[in-house]
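in:
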């Protein structure tokens, strides 16, 4: 990702009624840039050069335009430790399990409605998932 800042300042408005002379600069549509892209690039240009370069060099982050802009709007967002994706994913699946009421469903009926391939996958994966979740909870209990 590279940042390109126009040396001649912010984009000029296109001529229109009551706007005076035409701008010497091309319009966004003439150069193939959407208003959204232009807006994002302008916000990226507000990031101090040192911070921008540091974000690009950080091996633990994959900077995106959205993340960099979010940090401009909320500087505290960059100081909050990002949770690992696997932790968020697992938590989300468990919340889905709870929200969708699987604990109160008939497990035999759910299993019976599956295809043979699905049932084979459940038989293969479920014991490993149970062992993983049990070890996760036991490990957390040991730390407490």
């Amino acid at each position: 990702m590279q940042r390109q800042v126009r040396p001649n300042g912010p984009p000029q408005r296109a001529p229109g009624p009551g706007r005076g002379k035409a701008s010497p600069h091309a319009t966004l549509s003439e150069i193939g840039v959407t208003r959204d892209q232009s807006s994002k690039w302008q916000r990226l240009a507000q990031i101090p050069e040192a911070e921008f370069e540091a974000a690009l060099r950080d091996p633990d982050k994959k900077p995106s335009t959205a993340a960099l802009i979010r940090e401009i709007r909320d500087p505290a967002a960059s100081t909050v430790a990002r949770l690992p994706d696997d932790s968020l994913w697992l938590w989300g699946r468990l919340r889905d399990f709870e929200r969708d009421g699987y604990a109160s469903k008939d497990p035999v009926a759910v299993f019976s409605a599956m295809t043979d391939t699905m049932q084979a996958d459940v038989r293969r994966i479920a014991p490993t998932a149970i062992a993983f979740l049990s070890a996760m909870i036991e490990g957390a209990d040991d730390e407490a």
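note: Residues 4 and 45 are 8 Å apart (CA to CA).
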